[in-house]
Design a protein that fits this description.
Layout lengths: L2 H6 L1 E5 L4 E3 L8 E6 L2 E7 L2 E8 L4 E2 L1 H6 L6 E4 L3 E6 L1 H8 L4 H25 L4 H11 L6 E3 L2 E5 H12 L3 H13 L3 E4 L2 E4 L2 H17 L4
Helix pairs in contact: 5-8
C-alpha cells in the first residue's frame, strides 16, 4: 500500500466492542489499523472461534477485497481503535501495478482460506450425516468392501479414518453420524465392521449432497 494512497484514506474511529465489519457482510474495503486492536473471529453453531488479534500497522479485511466475496469473519474493537479505510476500488488500482504472478499467488491463498472456512463450517455447524452417507455408499464399490449377508462389509476403522480425512470432521462427529445411520436401519455395526444393508437408501440420503453441489454457483 503506497504512502500516497494512505494519505488520502478516510480515518474512522471504532469504540470498544463496536464492529468494524461482520461475517457475511458484502462490504469489501480494507482497513489499516493506526492505533488500538481488532479481534477477528468466526461464529459457527453459536461458538466464537478466534482467528487473530490485529494491532497498529496491520491490515484487516483483505480476503473480501481480493476475491470479491462476502466477509469471511467478524472484526470487533478490543479498545478504542482508529483505522484508515482503503476503498476496494483504490485497492484494485494498486493491484493493477503488481506483477501477475503475485496476484495469482494472492488469489490462491485467499481461495485456500475460503476452503478452511468451509471446513470449519462442516465441522462446527449442521448435520454431516448426508455427507457421510454419500461417502459410505461410495465405499461399498471399493474392492476392499466385501459382500456379506446381502449387504456390504467395510472395516469400521478404515471407514472412520477416511471420513475424518475427507470431511475434516472430529471422530466423535463421525461416530455420532454412523449411529444415526444405524438408527435409520441403513447400516449395522458389528465386530469392528460397518455393514451396509440397503445401499440404495443410503445413496438416496447422500444424494442431497450432490444436489446442493449442482445448485451452488461457482465463485
Amino acid at each position: 500500500m503506497s504512502d500516497r494512497s494512505l494519505a488520502k484514506a478516510l480515518k474512522v474511529r471504532v469504540e470498544k466492542d463496536d464492529f468494524l465489519f461482520k461475517e457475511g457482510d458484502a462490504s469489501r474495503d480494507l482497513y489499516v489499523i493506526q492505533f488500538g486492536a481488532i479481534r477477528i473471529f468466526k461464529t459457527e453453531a453459536g461458538v466464537e472461534i478466534d482467528l487473530a488479534k490485529a494491532g497498529p500497522g496491520e491490515v484487516v479485511g483483505e480476503v473480501a477485497a481480493i476475491d470479491g466475496g462476502v466477509r469471511s469473519a467478524t472484526g470487533i474493537a478490543l479498545e478504542t481503535t482508529e483505522v484508515l479505510v482503503i476503498p476496494v476500488e483504490d485497492f484494485k488500482r494498486i493491484l493493477g501495478g503488481i506483477p501477475d504472478w503475485f496476484r495469482r499467488i494472492a488469489g490462491i491463498l485467499v481461495h485456500r482460506l475460503r476452503e478452511v472456512d468451509a471446513s470449519i463450517h462442516r465441522t462446527m455447524g449442521g448435520d454431516s450425516t448426508p455427507q457421510i452417507a454419500a461417502l459410505v455408499s461410495l465405499m461399498t464399490y471399493h474392492p476392499n468392501a466385501n459382500s456379506e449377508s446381502g449387504g456390504y462389509s467395510i472395516s469400521q476403522k478404515d471407514l472412520e479414518n477416511e471420513l475424518v480425512d475427507v470431511l475434516q470432521l472430529q471422530l466423535s462427529d463421525v461416530t455420532a453420524s454412523l449411529g444415526q445411520l444405524r438408527t435409520k436401519g441403513l447400516i449395522e455395526l458389528a465386530k469392528g465392521k460397518v455393514i451396509v444393508k440397503d445401499r440404495g437408501k443410503l445413496e438416496e440420503l447422500g444424494s442431497s449432497v450432490y444436489r446442493q453441489d449442482e445448485t451452488t454457483p461457482a465463485t
